[in-house]
Amino acid sequence: MDAFWAFLTVFTQFDLLLLVGIGTFAGVYVGAIPGLSVTMAVSILISFTFSWDVYPAISLMIGIYMGGVYGGSRTAILLNIPGAPSAIATAMDGYP
Question: What pTM was estimated for this model as a whole?
Answer without folding.
Answer: 0.85
